[in-house]
Automatic annotation (TrEMBL):
Organism, scientific name: Heliobacterium modesticaldum (strain ATCC 51547 / Ice1)
Domain HPt: 1-101
Top-level taxon of origin: Bacteria
GO MF, one annotated term: phosphorelay sensor kinase activity
Protein name (record): Chemotaxis protein CheA
Enzyme class: transferase
Gene name, Swiss-Prot/TrEMBL: cheA
Domain CheW-like: 550-686
Keywords, in A-Z order: ATP-binding, Chemotaxis, Cytoplasm, Kinase, Nucleotide-binding, Phosphoprotein, Transferase, Two-component regulatory system
Record EC number: 2.7.13.3
């Protein structure tokens, strides 16, 4: 079974993510019947796959969760707050069994399983109007089923509207009217008149149809109404039922790129019989080819890495070939062979670029996979501290390289935990400050050029700069008598061991969280910016490269050497006059929008010999680079230009090459070294301490 384990772990994580996401939605009051079905299917799938690969503990616990969700789906149980906590405990147990077996407490296993079994024996008490409405709807639907007489095939249709859908009663009326072509509409919950009176109160509706004529393909087309998120058809004939959920299309004027088709693999429906699996391809073939679902395959990341390396070699060869073509043109002019070489060189460059873009897109994954675990973290932390926190997420579809996705989860998690613990105040304190009791944390991802920007902000108390400065002086990070800028004070929180917490807890106080963030972002050649206003909140902005395999680089000249600075670390470039450069403590600095930035000659940092014939220039070429929260100006002789480069590792441990992240081959065949900006910052800091 070893060959299937990687696939099992990947799919198990997906199922756990679905269960966690939907359970959080139910707790927040935004549940739907389709959500319950989705959770049931996820638990059913995880139970079966874990039994197949030999995880009996996971199988048993998942079976308990599935049984409970089955009761909820049938309307025999309503999840209370206590029940939701218990299911979360079960999901934690399952996750530990799969990914952290050393953390499993066997003594608590039987107790947890017993509690899950106990709550199924009695209906949960109603907690409010939402629970009452669910119970009422279940009763109305049961009454409809009991009085239905069928001349054709008993069919139940679940309609789920999009959250932004306007005039839901009109959409519902169109569906009911279209269904008359296929038989008799026995009734609906809610009735159309109820929805017309208060349409915003209903996110979904159920219809009972006596289906007498027409094909399934025709029925699906009749249900294809704008602003309907999902239509689930449950049909029964002689006790055999087949269920499928078909994503509704956009308005007829818009052709969707793909139609989402969910295959129901678990038991569903009002007769309690087992669902028949309907392949997505079969459903798609019944409709127009424009509704064909997007097909996906899974592939090992190592294979993509190999292809990326080969394309990197191809880029280098293409650059060399372009250089050869240029040399030939310079020597022989516009001969027929030169023209043919130019055409083929252009074609090769175009194909190489397309190959690179295609593979880069294949390596891109949505950042939503990382974001999905944070609502649970915020929920647990807020409950533990007695706070009310709402996590708002945007840009989950923003894509970046899988390598980067795997590495940014921890720093974002630390920043969110920091916002809950240090940023958001207790409800009483927020009331006294004139704020709503519930604090808000915003997590947003966007693309900006070749970078992805992740913003984590809260509307909490903000950073107390005087407290941070006092702690910085106490730790010796700020010498007495020196007055740092506001930005330098905020940057102190990234210092190792720095914490303003008055007591150490299991969440904060040890001074390692923000240091972890800094090191992780530095390893990705990223940048951190902080903005904070007392009493209004704090915002962190992470700027990260989309990929680490093939990067954009700025080629600079220092004496006779061509060096490359990763463009993700380049913030700005300047032509400074000598009068714009000041001296502070024996070190050259310059000012950028009120921020003091140290200036270093790259030639001195790398100990490149000075060319005695080089004259003194009136202007100084400076490249300002950033790493995490730090900034530095690097003086170079000239800027040559931007180039897409393939990073090649330097395997020479006997050489001291810590200042270089690797090398690349330029079009003329020369090797150019790529600067390690992290090491350059450390070298600059070392010189400052030495001076």
């Amino acid at each position: 079974m070893d060959q299937y384990m990687d696939l099992f772990y990947s799919e198990a994580k997906e199922q756990l993510d679905i269960l966690t996401r939907d359970l959080l939605a139910i707790e927040s009051g935004s549940s739907s019947q389709e959500m319950i079905h989705e959770m049931f299917r996820a638990a059913h799938t995880l139970k079966g796959s874990s039994a197949m690969v030999g995880f009996p503990a996971v199988t048993e616990m998942t079976h308990k969760v599935e049984d409970l969700l089955g009761k909820v789906r049938e309307g025999k149980h309503i999840l209370s707050a206590k029940d939701i906590d218990l299911v979360f405990q079960a999901l934690d147990y399952i996750q530990n069994c799969l990914f952290h077996p050393e953390a499993v407490d066997s003594a608590k296993t039987e107790e947890l399983a017993r509690k899950l079994a106990d709550i199924q024996d009695q209906p949960a008490p109603a907690n409010g109007p939402a629970d009452d409405s669910v119970a009422k709807r279940t009763a109305q639907l049961a009454e409809l089923r009991s009085r239905g007489t069928y001349k054709g095939k008993a069919t139940e249709i679940l309609v789920t509207f999009r959250p932004e859908c306007a005039m839901r009663s009109v959409r519902f009326f169109l569906i009911l009217n279209n269904l008359k072509e296929f038989g008799e509409v026995i009734g609906s919950v809610p009735a159309w008149s109820e929805m017309e009176a208060n349409e915003n109160a209903y996110e979904e509706a159920s219809i009972l149809l006596d289906w007498r004529q027409g094909s399934r393909n025709d029925l699906e087309r009749a249900l294809n109404v704008a602003d309907v998120r999902c239509i689930e058809i449950r049909s029964g004939d002689d006790g055999n039922e087949a269920f499928s959920a078909v994503g509704a299309a956009e308005p007829p004027t818009a052709l969707p790129a793909a139609t989402e088709v969910t295959v129901a693999k678990a038991a569903a429906g009002y007769r309690g019989t087992e669902a028949v699996k309907t392949p997505a391809a079969d459903l798609a073939s019944q409709g127009d080819s424009s509704h064909r679902p997007t097909e996906y395959i899974k592939i090992e990341a190592n294979r993509l890495d190999l292809l990326m390396n080969l394309i990197g070699e191809m880029l280098i060869s293409q650059a060399r070939f372009s250089r050869i073509q240029e040399n030939y043109l310079e020597r022989h002019g516009q001969t027929p062979l030169a023209v043919e070489m130019a055409e083929e060189t252009h074609q090769l460059a175009r194909i190489t670029t397309q190959l690179q873009d295609g593979l880069m897109k294949a390596r891109l994954v949505p950042i939503g996979g990382v974001f999905s675990r944070f609502p649970r973290i915020v929920r647990d932390l807020a409950r533990k501290q007695g706070k009310k926190v709402n996590l708002m997420m945007e840009g989950q579809d923003t894509e970046l390289d899988k390598t980067v996705v795997d590495l940014i989860g921890d720093p974002i998690m630390h920043l969110i935990r920091n916002s809950v613990d240090h940023g958001i105040e207790l409800p009483e304190a927020r009331r006294q400050a004139g704020k709503p009791e519930e604090g808000t944390i915003r997590l947003k991802a966007t693309h900006e050029g070749s970078r992805i920007v992740v913003e984590i902000g809260d509307d909490g108390r903000g950073i107390d700069e005087s407290k941070v400065l006092a702690k910085g002086r106490a730790l010796g990070l700020i010498p007495e008598g020196q007055t740092p800028s506001r930005q330098e004070i905020l940057d102190l929180i990234f210092a190792p061991g720095f914490s303003t917490a008055e007591k150490v807890t299991d969440i904060s106080g040890r001074g390692v969280g923000m240091d972890v963030v800094k090191r992780a972002i530095s390893s990705l050649h990223g940048i951190i910016d902080i903005q904070s206003e007392p009493g209004q909140g704090t915002a962190f902005q992470l700027q990260l490269p989309i990929t680490l395999a093939i990067i954009q680089g700025l080629i600079v000249r220092v004496e006779r050497e061509s060096l490359i600075i990763p463009l993700d670390n380049v913030l700005e470039s300047f032509q400074l006059q000598n009068k714009e450069v000041q001296s502070v403590g024996g070190r050259e600095v310059f000012s950028v929008r009120g921020r003091i930035v140290p200036l270093y000659r790259l030639q001195d940092l790398l100990q490149i010999p000075l060319d005695p014939e080089k004259g003194r220039r009136k202007y100084r070429s400076v490249v300002m680079v950033g790493l995490a929260e730090r900034r530095m100006g690097l003086e170079v002789d000239s800027l040559i230009g931007k180039k897409e480069i393939v990073i090649k590792p330097i395997k020479a441990p006997w050489l001291n090459l810590e200042h270089f992240a690797g090398a690349t081959i330029l079009g003329d065949g020369r090797v150019s070294l790529i600067l390690n900006i992290g090491a350059i910052f450390r070298r600059g800091a070392g010189e400052r301490l030495q001076n």
